[in-house]
Design brief:
Blueprint: H1 5-20, H2 24-44, H3 50-71, H4 76-79, H5 94-106, H6 127-153, H7 170-201, H8 223-230, H9 236-250, H10 258-284, H11 287-316, H12 324-341, H13 343-352
Length: about 375
């Protein structure tokens, strides 16, 4: 298969160009070209590594959805403003417009933009204290990622041709699901901490420009809370814009109604499923896995719908405020749901080989007594 990298470069150039030109017909033409290249990359190219294939197809499909938001559903050169921006983008000098365009296509959460997602957790620490703190957290998450990878590499449930996550029972499945989330969360948090520390140290950004990627874990009492606050919100703006367009422009549901709300909910999770399934397809070209991944994300919306029904019934009986007991029960529910539903998506990544890579240098694996566990 041909290499994906030249086509990825072409996709990025087209995406950047689409934010610099003012002509709407030309921007739409650029979007169609981007869509064709994205589909070709996912269907017909490879990076040479299963993990890299997955993490190429996934962000590319998200970027295409974000481009659809910026090109088909809005006109950001007139409506999107960065913090401190005094004029619409089309009126800015070219250098400022280039920086504007680069930021808007990469800043999926809309940090410091007029469309910033709600509820971000910022730091107001002094620059030096922030950099030192981020480096400490980077080291912590690196060690956690390293340890999780070491465990996974010696766990048959994480081998490409290994056993099922729940083959040895429910407790074993729960452990495997927990290790999967730990591996991904620590890897993402490590990179976020490192990049934020470097860019803030170089005075390219301020500490408040790097909100924490995850919400507080102990506040995760519903599946809705997990996906809406606890887990990263990188997909929120691209998917929500399409959900709102479908609910309010296509179906013309009134804003705030259940029909509008649930149309947006199911659209968001369907698109999320397609994004992740695109990464899986580029990695393995397996139709059943594509379906399984998409279905995994759709059933998250089903779980949220059930939660809403239970909460509504509780309110009918006068239960309106959360107590310690209800919060604890909610956390148990989220954990059980995650353990039960997780393998539907996680095993597709494992069987495709996306979990075989680890940190370039293992610190934990070099500790006395642990070297024998290195793969």
């Amino acid at each position: 298969m041909p290499s994906a990298y030249p086509y990825i470069a072409a996709f990025i150039i087209l995406q950047l160009t689409s934010m610099l030109v003012s002509s709407s017909p030309l921007r739409r033409a650029l979007f169609l070209s981007m869509a064709a290249i994205c589909i070709y990359i996912i269907l017909c190219t490879t990076t040479g590594s299963p993990a890299d294939d997955y993490f190429t197809g996934l962000p590319l499909s998200i970027s295409l959805c974000n481009a659809s938001t910026l090109i088909l559903l809005s006109d950001p050169q007139y409506t999107a403003f960065r913090q401190g921006q005094t004029a619409a983008a089309h009126a800015l000098p070219f250098k400022q417009r280039l920086l504007w365009a680069t930021d808007i296509i990469t800043n999926w959460r809309g940090i410091n933009w007029s469309f910033e997602i709600p509820g971000v957790r910022r730091s107001n620490a002094p620059r030096l204290s922030y950099v030192i703190s981020r480096l400490k957290w980077c080291f912590f998450h690196y060690i956690l990622y390293d340890a999780a990878t070491l465990i996974n590499q010696n766990n048959p449930a994480f081998w490409k041709d290994g056993e099922r996550m729940g083959q040895r029972g429910v407790a074993y499945q729960a452990f495997n699901v927990l290790m999967f989330w730990t591996t991904f969360a620590s890897s993402m948090a490590m990179k976020h901490s490192l990049f934020s520390a470097i860019t803030v140290a170089l005075h390219l950004y301020e500490p408040r420009d790097w909100p924490f990627p995850f919400g507080p874990l102990l506040h995760t009492t519903t599946v809705r809370t997990f996906w809406g606050r606890t887990w990263h919100q990188a997909l929120r703006h691209p998917v929500s814009s399409h959900g709102k367009y479908l609910a309010q422009t296509i179906f013309r549901f009134s804003l705030g109604t259940s029909l509008s709300s649930y149309t947006q909910l199911y659209t968001a999770f369907l698109l999320s499923g397609i994004f992740h399934a695109a990464g899986d397809w580029m990695m393995s070209h397996n139709l059943q896995r594509f379906i399984d991944v998409t279905w995994y994300f759709v059933i998250q919306a089903v779980a949220i719908s059930v939660e809403d029904l239970v909460i509504a019934i509780a309110k009918k009986f006068g239960i309106r405020q959360a107590s310690f007991l209800s919060s604890a029960a909610g956390m148990v529910w989220v954990f059980c749901w995650t353990v039960w539903s997780g393998p539907l998506w996680m095993e597709t990544m494992i069987r495709g080989g996306a979990m075989e890579d680890g940190p370039p240098l293992s610190v934990v694996g070099r500790l006395p007594g642990l070297a024998k566990f290195r793969t």
